[in-house]
Amino acid sequence: MSAIPQKATGEIHIRGGVRLQGKVKVQGSKNAALPILAATILAEGESFLKDCPKISDVYRMLRLLQSLGGHVCWEGEGVCVSTGSITTRDMPADAITGMRSSLCLLGALLARCGSIVMEYPGGCVIGKRPIDLHLRALEQMGVCFSEEGDRICGRAPEGLRGAEIHLAMPSVGATENILLAAVTARGCTRIEGAAREPEVEALCRYLNACGARIDGVGTSCLEIQGVRRLHGAAYRIPADRIVAGTYLYAALGTRGCVLLEQAPSQHMHGVIRMAERMGALCQVTGEGLYVQSLGELTAPGMVRTGVYPGFPTDMQSVVLAVSTMAEGETRIEELIFENRFRVAGPLRQMGAEIRQTGPHNLWVGGGARLRGQRVEACELRGGAALVVAGLMAEGETVVTGCEYIERGYENICKDLRELGARIYSV
Ligand code: EPZ
Q1: 415: burial class by Cβ within 10 Å (0-12, 13-18, 19+)?
Q2: Quick one: what percent of the chain has pLDDT higher than 90?
Q3: Whose CA is nearest to atom 24 of ligand 1?
Q4: From the CB of residue 132, how many other CB atoms can be counted at a distance below 10 Å?
Q5: Centroid of ligand 1 to alpha carbon of 245 (angstroms)
């Protein structure tokens, strides 16, 4: 596999006040690519994933696949993966610790190898990130889990069997792990209350391209008829709706006018409608999504995150950043994760008027004139929000902790420079 380019993981410097203009191609989706890379474990032969994003979470997943015996090679606009010799015997230490960030390997490795050892995934900055729904569902499919210290071991001595699974909440990751366990299980699996996120749909389409039999794709009721084997497939990773949304709101916040090439507009209705409420003109064209600020930046009033097709939690920090400068008050309700307001602190440092009014609620005064500051990113989407705030602020903003942003954005500085921003990483 070609050497993983080591990017500077230091700081991003931004001189704000430039109206973004021009066009930029939207990268492939992180949250579609990760479960699909895990799914290659189930396919005999090679898969080619076009537009697989070159981001650190993908590099980490590829290293995990290699540490388990897989072969990986970047070629042209995508990555080739073949996993014929994957085994979980003698799992290397970094595979066990790395599993935390690649929980979607759980279902695939249990299906392929019948066993898995992984460190108990702890929480992260945005929430506790429990995996109870994953484990309970896999137990219904014949997996026995045991705890050994801070590790969990899963074994399916008699292989995986189809089951009738009702998810108490439409967890994206749990839906993906059940799909990965079910496609080669004995018999039929039915998932009631499945997540409907576009990334789950992409996983289903890749698996069906490999010979799986999944019905109800895109709905909350999925039916999977287990098959004996899957073959590799060529598949194009869909564009990243959160990266597209980030640049959409950056254009709105800087009063700009941009074309987001290949933006997945069909999966961005909530994001587009909110931007139109705030003063954007959005038009879907043959090339992608055209966004133009109509001049005034108006507060959205109420932003409530929800499961798809609701307003995506991954866009909450970005819309918060833009709302700080919009005319009027905004109330934000974060209903997916329990600690996703960390970015409010650095935004206050820049002059924003934000108050936390409840465990899931923020009040934003609006009308602020943000001033450039040195601010620290502590997680992926909050980091992207600080970059957007820097584009809108007067003076220079330095964003540290850019390794978090590189988890999900191939090259946010290059993309924004193509739209005229004065931004570079050091
Ligand atoms: C996926 O996380 C995404 N990550 C997240 O994107 C995204 O925010 C999230 O879905 C919601 O859309 C990837 O796809 C890699 P969930 P996931 O299971 O699967 C609770 C980003 O920035 N829950 O739908 O972990 C959980 O605590 C990341 O790209 C349980 O209680 O999300 C959370 O409150 C951040 N028990 C809620 O469900 C469980 O067993 C949603 O979690 C599982 C989840």
Answers
A1: buried
A2: 87
A3: 171
A4: 10
A5: 18
